[in-house]
Write a structure and sequence with these properties.
CATH superfamily of the largest domain: Glutamine synthetase/guanido kinase, catalytic domain
Radius of gyration: 29 Å
Oligomer: single chain
Structural class: alpha+beta
Largest sheet: 9 strands, mixed
Distance between the termini: 22 Å
Shape: globular
Bound molecules: adenosine-5'-diphosphate, magnesium ion
CATH architecture of the largest domain: 2-Layer Sandwich
CATH topology of the largest domain: Creatine Kinase, Chain A, domain 2
CATH class of the largest domain: Alpha Beta
Amino acid sequence: MSELRFDVVKNAFKKKALPVEAPEARPTEYFGELVFNRDKMQKYLDANTYNALINCIEGGTALDRSTADKVATGMKTWAMEHGVTHITHWFQPLTEGTAEKHDSFIEYDQKTSITETFDGRSLIQQEPDASSFPNGGIRATFEARGYTAWDPTSPVFIQDDTLCIPTVFIAYTGEALDYKTPLKRALKAVNDAAVSVCQLFDPNVKKVYSYLGWEQEYFLVDEDLYAARPDLMLTGRTLMGHASSKNQQLDDHYFGAIPSRVAAFMRELEFAGFRLGIPLKTRHNEVAPNQFELAPIYGETNLSNDQNQLIMNEMNTIARKHGFVVLLHEKPFNGINGSGKHNNWSLGTDTGVGLLSPGKDAKSNLQFVTFFVNVLAAVQKHNALLKASIASATNAHRLGANEAPPAIISAFLGRTMTEVLHKLLELPSDTPIEIAGKKGAKVGLVEIPEIFIDNTDRNRTSPFAFTGNRFEFRAIGSSANCAGAMTTLNAAVADQLVQFKADVDKELAKGKALNVAIMDTLKPIIASILDTVCFDGNGYSEEWKMEAQRRGLDTETSVPEMIKKFTSPDSVAMFKRTGVYSEKELAARNEVKWETYTKKVQIEARVMGRMAINHIIPAALAYKNKLLSNIQMTKDVFPEEYQTMAATEISTVKTITKYIADLTSMVDDMVNARKAANKIEDEYQKACAYHDIAESLFAIRRPIDKLEEIVDNDLWPLPKYRELLFIN
Ligand code: ADP
Ligand code: MG
């Protein structure tokens, strides 16, 4: 086994970068090649069909059956030119990743021949046998079937030989069984609420878009090393492994030169992304060794989220071509940074105004401050819910560790905006908010810089940070579907904006001028957020935990408990008002979340137990036997002095014996705890029991990591951290 390990390590180290088949054309020529975008619509659809489809995408009008048939025919012609033979409805069930069931275009005449067809019906709706997707009991109790329905706002695309149609996934009783449906509802809610607030400032605003720019962190591991680690293969993370002598302490990886095998992977990933219309912009090394990041230019949230799901699939496939496995797990390695997915989020109007960017005059600045403050109010009210929206068994390893993000949701504003808010509180409500520098330095004025110079004054410990023209929600896990967090955030902001608009209307009814009515409504909100959710200090300090508790922020650290927040009365009411989730959906989703949590920990616990018994203890015993025969031989040759001469060996044998005994008894206890937990019927109670088991895994790895430190390197069966992290 250990010989195998050396072979694997040596071969992995020797691997060279594969040649990249680079397209000859410039990206401008093949960008979006595999997407049925507006250019393709124009080319493959007649004018009436095109217009009907655009109205459907932009205005939400329904497509009649004959138009849908024409759209399908155009798509089919385009797809067949790319060698496509199959179609699939592509959807995002409540598992990680996406689901697809491929059907070929063929129809059989029941005699000899086939034709290739694709009509509006198969474009619009499919009924995948959905009974094995997580549904939290919705289908079991109500209706056995679910269906997928085309989401025309996400463009159709080609993957290999398959035409992929982005769809929502819904039970026949109407409940959402996926991520996309509630996200679309939340986007509608935030659009409606924000438009009505924008119209206070500009009646021309008809639509407000929610924008998402994700930054995806990941690790790459050589596939042969990966295959030698059952824990990585089955759980996505290392359950054991002593820290490497060198890890990230020199900070020599961050933004360093990209290793050539990795660079080849990245280039190919970019080609694939561009062809799928994903505007990939940034690639770089991250903080930890073998950790990297990828980010596109932001886009409309629903589309951008689809693109994130797509690129995660592409990463898996392309990494394998280059002899790597991509790790999207939040914490693949203990003791070094984990991976997140920062969600840069903002709102913008159809008139081209960024609602979280300072404006050009006092009026647009007031609009900016209005949205800025209301977003923070939403985060304040729903801080526990936002945390619940990013809570998972895997992300739990990041939360609260000494790295982004802490397990308390607070917001970082930066010095400039904090000062602006304080000034607004002090000054009369009709004080204009000027652009700094434009009017000269007038003492007492509220001034906002046109561009935030200090927007790099980043607080890396904050889970929700203002970065000049957007908020950056940093607590999302690298393996998560962004929609979970984006649904909650957009819904919470929508609800807050509705409340705000109603309050402003009351002030206006008193005969106040618009700017005064707005500022009078904002002031108590500003005072409240400054006292609670706004925090520019160190999010990891012990004092902050105490202080946050005093401020009424949620400090829960157990994932099964955090999840419960989704069904608290205030959350249920908010989601009901915004039309994002029904109470039944929330309850069902929580069942799914607890069940998923339990299963993940259960798998980890099993793998841990088996590796301890089948890998670690045998290796430790082999070394112990080696030492014992050494002691025996010493005794044979030097019967008088062997105790002194073999003192080190004797003491090591004792240490190994103790670790093996500890390990055996801890594994026994863990197996018993699992047996007890498995008897629990209630999913929440069961997840709580598994939370304790998850904690016990930390204790179990301790004797294993200690053994790794002393057992003969030749006998150690698993690739070590130094090998997993530094070979690329
Ligand atoms: P950093 O690592 O410094 O935070 P990156 O450039 O890696 O920044 O990523 C920032 C992300 O934020 C990109 O996806 C970018 O397109 C996105 N972004 C920039 N402006 C906005 C905005 N107004 N709304 C949403 N996302 C934005
Ligand atoms: Mg960022």
